[in-house]
Amino acid sequence: MISLSSYLFISFTLFIAGIAVMIARKNIIAMMLGIELILNSAALNFAAYSRFVNNNLEGHLMSLFIIVIAAAEAAVGLAIVIRFFQIKETIHIDDAAQLQS
Amino acid sequence: MFENTLFFLSATLTIVGAAGVVFSKNLMHACVLLLGSLFGIAGLYATIGADFLAASQLVIYAGGVVILMLFAVMLTGGSADSSNKFGIEKIPGMGSTKTYVIAGFSVLVISFTILKLMANFMKSYKAGELPAFSSTVEEIGTLLVTDHVLAFEISSILLLGALVGAAVIARPRKG
Amino acid sequence: MEYTISTIAPIVLLPFFAFVINAFIVKRFTSLAVFISCASIIGSFFYAARVFFDFLNVFSADYYIHKTFTWFDLSYGSFPFKLDMGIYIDNMTATMLFMVTGVASLIHIFSTYYMHDDKRYGRFFVYLSLFTSAMLALVLSENLISVFIFWELMGFCSYSLIGFYYEKEGAGNASIKAFMTTRVGDVFFLLGILAIWSVVGSVSFVDIYQAIGMGKFNGLYALGIPLATFAGFSIFMGTIGKSAQFPLQVWLPDAMWGPTPCSALIHAATMVAAGVYLSLRCYPLMEAGHLTMFIAYIGGITAFGAATIALVQTDIKAVLAYSTISQLGYMVLGVGVGSYNAAFMHLITHAVFKACLFLSAGSVIHSLHDHHTHAHVQEMPRMGGLRTKMPYTFLAMLLCTFAIAGIPFFSGFVSKDRILGDALLMALDNKAYWGPAVLGFGGALLTAFYMFRMMFLTFFGEPRDKELYDHTKKEGLSWNRNVPLLILSVFTLGVFFSGSLTGQGFIKVSSEKYEWFKTLIVNPTKTDFSGRQAQPLSFTANPSGETFSKSKYDSTYGLSEEKAHHIHHVHHIGALVSIIIAFSGVFISAMMYFWRSWNPGFWVSLFSRWYRALQNKYYFDDFYIKGLIQKGLLPLNRLLAFIDMGLYDRYAIDGWEKVNRALFTISKWFDNIIVDTVAVDGTGASVRFFNVILRTIQSGKIQFYFIMIILVLTGYIWTLKI
Amino acid sequence: MQASSNLLNWILWTPFIGVIGVLLLPKSKENAIRWWSLINTAVTFALTLVLYSKFDTTVPGMQTAFNVKMPWISSFNIFYSLGVDGISLPMIILTGLLFFLCILSSWTVNKQVKGYFALFLFLQSTVFGVFLAMDFFLFYVYWEVMLIPMFFLIGIWGGENREYAAVKFFLYTFFGSILMLVGMVALYYASGKGVDSFNILALQGGKFSSLNLELFGTSVSFAKLFFIFLFIGFAIKVPVFPFHTWLPHAHVQAPTAVSVILAGVLLKMGTYGFLRIAYPIFPAASVHFADAIAWLGLVNVIYGAFCAMAQTDVKKLVAYSSVSHMGFVMLGLAAMTVTGMNGAVLQMFNHGTSTAMMFLLIGILYERSHHRWIVRPDGSKGFGGLYTQLPRFSIVFIIAMFASMGLPGLSGFISEALIFLGIYEKYTTITVLALIGLLLGAAYLLWMFKRMFFGDVIEECKSYTDMNAREIAYMVPLCVAVIVFGIYPAPVLNVMRASVGKLVSMLATY
Description:
CATH topology of chain A: Helix Hairpins
Strand order of the largest sheet of chain C: 2-1-9
Helix content of chain A: over 70%
Strand content of chain A: under 5%
Oligomer: heterotetramer
Strand content of chain C: under 5%
């Protein structure tokens, strides 16, 4: 009953939600929430395939690395956001349209 | 039975959380909802026997990333004024009708695309007999320091770099 | 005596090490530096004396020491090249070493008096030590390249010492003039070395003598000049430069800008004599190249011409400088007329008495101190009557003046008389030699005249500058002022050179008594070099001395009785003539300046044009400096420099810029009219259209990019056939 | 290839490590940058001395023990190949020494210290590259890359007219390089594009002497044509007479240390190119053109000396004297005898030390006076009485000057004498005329010395201070080198003897 497709469906939903957040929001932090969702959907996919198809732990490792990368990404990204806010006093995404200011 | 219950609960939590992130009008709420969604994913990991993964998910995401997000949200609040010297709102709105329409359209396109890809795969997929669960912690540990030691080390360097980089970038500068 | 490295090397190395040590300590420990210099040269003197007396004891023509070591070796396969350095000591070298170290020691001692109050007291001794070691090394050299090396080093010391008072503009001019003039000769010398190398494949003296003996120099050089003539002439040009012979004599009078002891050592006793020494060493080459008459003429002209200029000088050092040139001319004349032995003897005797004369002049100058200008007085018109004030200096100077004037029983007579006798002999033999002979005798007359003129003006008569005279202190006997002078003046007695006592008792050659000097120094052409080989440094054994055979030293040997008688006869006539000439010179001088019976002004007005020419040194300086250099060389330089930067670089090189710019204009026009308007502008319009579209896409908005990515990816995926 | 030592790699890349170090140091830590550069160059110099101590003087040609060879661009058979022989070793030691001393002399550079020292060390690396490269392509790359730091060093830290001089230097050298490039490519095709097409050693020995080219309908000897190409390429660097005008400009405008390197090392790259590439690859053509080279060398000697005498800028005077002295090297090269060639290589080394001394001294003087006029354009004296004012400086200057004019006992003499001994038999007329250059050389230097150092101290010079400890520190090694190699040249001559002899014996068969 609970099969691979269930997990894929959940993963699919998460992905869609992430994309929607990334496009709909104008707030950089909110967009980063979307990125987290997308990353999690991918990680879940890996874990699910690892369980149902390959039957080994490679997928788990991949998920683990994704978590690590997500953590790093969040740290740096949020640092940039804070810096950006210090300079511009805003976190509106459209204000970050110039390479140098 | 327990497995099924856990699965459904987790799946519900995940999807509801994700939907909340999409539709919430408050950034703080969105963060908390994301936390819920991540908890749900941890639950899903548990249902496929990935105990180590579930634990990591809880610790790193729930304990680290989301807290970080909350910090960022608070730090970017600043003074009571809602708009900066350019007249732009500091914490911008969570989207307008226009953006939602665009997002919806994009999502539709992507959904069809992914479904097209998945359809082919699903046709050929046959569920087989699954092995019993066993603890994965030891095995993952072994793999990390044998076959995947390079990736492991690189990720540690990445984390170090991210740590230093975040500190350097966020540091306030004179002038 | 056994010769090893430690018996010979100290002669050169003691002064050299003194130089090296003093160069570092001279600023801090001046007195110590001076002491080291003096001690080293005196030590060197004892080593040299050991060598000299050993040679005197052995007393053989064929006694020599010749040791070499390899300086560097460039041989590869079938291309040999090896340069040896080494020492070659024969009777001449030993005598020379003894003279140089002796004179140098006394001059060092005198310098401690003369230079004591100078602010660069110590530095003077540094230069002196370097110079002495270079001179001694030159004397010991066994080949021409090493002679050249030390020759140039001496030139450098001479340059530094002439420019010793570098605050004075004149000293700078004089030093550069001295260096450049001798360098002209040096360049020819180097050319001669190259020519000899190309013939012999070595520049060792012994090898050259052997090669001459084998007839290697008989070939022709370019333009029909024999090789020996070319090589000999080039080497002799070195002599002309270094020994201040006509026409390169201009530098020596100016060299008197240096301190007087340096004039005594370098520009009278040793360095200038080194030129003659070189000629004597290469004498077989000169002979083989038939250069003797040329050399004789150069010597005669110099001897006479310099003596004439000396007649009108009023500066005491200038008189001595011109007399040095003149005496060097006699030596060269001696080389030219084939009196090898007498030329060398004159070198030695001249070194002794001229060093003494210079030192005496230094003693005079040093004690005459003008309180108005705070300078020492060198002008003879301000002297006079100094006989009573400085009796020891007067005595020394008088003896030396006797020697240089050729008064019998003094050394100058012994040597100069024999040169003149040989010149007379040559003249009787070959009429072309009458020129040098007459010039030589004329010069002897003038020498006696101007030297006594100097003596009379300085020491006799009434003091002409009373104030100066009164300020001068009376001279006492002092170890570093007049004792060196007196020692030197003793050696102006002729008996030291014409005696026949040696370490082996009286010299008996074929049961006749002979002068030791005449016997000891033998013309190398009379020696057989064919079996000689250089020994390595560690080799100690030496060929045993052989007794003298008459053939080696006696110029009349092998001639008929009548001819030999003729030669003796001519020599006697020559001696008589030169005695008469010397005394008449002294007499004329006394008439003019002692008894004042004849008025010199009368003669000046009689020969006023000549007088002006003499005062202007025959216009040589004008010709060289104003003519050749200022009118010829410098404008040429400026012209070439202008051509180089102003024309060649500016137009030929930078002109390319102009050409490029013209090409650029043409191509720009082509671009504008044809390519741009027709072809490019059409393209440009379309580009501008797309530009607008692309610019809107390139908005910098991340979400827009994101959507674009999604669309493109989906599009791609939909086109896949899965 | 044997198991080889990595010494050459270390020599080549140590300065490069220095560059990276300088770049990593922050801009404000100027003293740290200076000390780092100094230590780096000292280490490099020590490495060159290690190379000297391990060098086997009996082996003619390349020392296989040091060879380094690995593929670089395999599709064109280009190798990263380094080697050392008796001709390049003196140059390598000279480079190590001069850069070390130049860092010391650059201590007073205050403008953009970081960039200066980075470029300077980079220059050292490229110069080592030229002297070590055994692959023609690698040689060419280093030859070209060397221009970049030079261009910036002259163009940024130079005098008033620096841009002009820098551009002129660059374009001149570039012109030569292009001809060299053509020659290189021609050799690549002529040798059949094989494994050894860029191998300098394998190209040696007249392999191309019988090859002919069709050019504009006439048959031209391949060797002669491309010898001329290579000749011009190297001659510009030397510089040989018609291509010499960049030198005075570059020298006058360049900062002291760069002048030193330019005169001390870079000019030698030209003559080194003859010895390493042009002569061995086209021996027959070299012998054919020897007369022309000799005459050009003579013109260099005389013309350089004449022009030097007319200069009123002391640095320009020394620059022209370099032209004159490099003429002696050309004469030695034209002789193609053991003496002449050894003399030429020795003269390259000796001129490096003596001219470096001259330029360093002028730099020291310039730091005090801020001008270099012997006689100002208005006719007044620029310097006067320096002998009284600066006694230590003057003594060192005398040593440098007399070494430069070839006084025996100092280094210049032996090399000049060897060159003359080598050339006399073949070109007697040229020798006689070149000796005039010796005379003129003494004349202009002494005249300059007299005008600047003798006489009373002029008002302006009274404030000058004598050399300080740092300045003495970097003059002393050169003084020692000049005196020691003047008295006993065997340490240098022994190194080069076998290699030069091999080259000469090869040339002698044509």
